[in-house]
Each structure stands twice: as C-alpha cells, then as structure tokens.
Amino acid sequence: MRNIVEIKEVFKTIDKEEILSGINLQIAEGEIYGFLGPNGAGKTTLMKCMLSLSTITSGSIEIFGKNLQEHREEILSQIGSIIESPIFYDNCTAKEILEIHAHYMEKNITESDIIRSLRMVGLKNTTKK
C-alpha cells in the first residue's frame, strides 16, 4: 500500500522556540490517524503545516507522493480539513453548508456530488436537517 502522507524530519521554530522537532510520519492509503498529546505538544501546528497553513522551518512534507511546497494548490484541491473549531450555520442543512463551501472554493459541484459525499460519511438522510 502506498503512503498518502510522508513527513520527513520536520522542524518548526517560532520566535526561537522549537515547536516541532524532527517529526517523521508515514500514513498509508486507507489508514486513519489521530494526534494525541498535551496542550502545546505541536498537534495543531503539525496539522497546519500539513495543510500549508503554516510553513515548516526544515524537512519535507509529501502528500499523494508530491512535495507540499511545490504542489500546494494541486494537493489542497484534493483534500478537506477542519482544525480546532468547525463553523456551522445553524439555519442551514448539511447539503446547504456543502453548497456554500463549494461556492466560495469556486468548485463546480453538482447536487449528486453533494449527496454522494453525504452518503460516504453516513449523513445521507440529513439533506433536510
């Protein structure tokens, strides 16, 4: 099975403080990972680096076999994420929320794409909720 994520010797320093120190991680296709650790351990920082929301000081991050820094837009167009607190609109259905996100991301998403996505995550019956 191929690795979807490969993190090699990643370091992140902020104001001379080392936040990430030599992180190595491989995630194979189909695997699910969670990050556990105390506050300040670098979990959120690593996730932000993996999404190119924060730059690494040194090392490399590859996603789908491509270097994140060199292929940022291509990689990010294929993934989604929620870090820390998700934002939901109280008066919108799950379907409407996905339509809103597709619109501001300038994605040409059909209604059947949205229904298929909701079905994949077990939310098929929430189109009216």
From TrEMBL:
Write out the coiled-coil annotation as residue ranges: none
Question: What Gene3D superfamilies does this protein's entry cite?
Answer: P-loop containing nucleotide triphosphate hydrolases
What InterPro entries would the database entry show? ABC_transporter-like_ATP-bd (IPR003439), ABC_Transporter_VariousFunc (IPR051782), P-loop_NTPase (IPR027417)
Against SUPFAM superfamilies, the record matches this protein to: P-loop containing nucleoside triphosphate hydrolases
From the Swiss-Prot or TrEMBL record, what is one GO molecular function term? ATP binding
User: What are the entry keywords?
Assistant: ATP-binding, Nucleotide-binding, Transport
Where would I find the ABC transporter domain in this sequence?
A: 20-125
Q: Check the record and name the Pfam families matching this protein.
A: ABC_tran
Q: What protein name does the entry list?
A: Bacitracin ABC transporter, ATP-binding protein
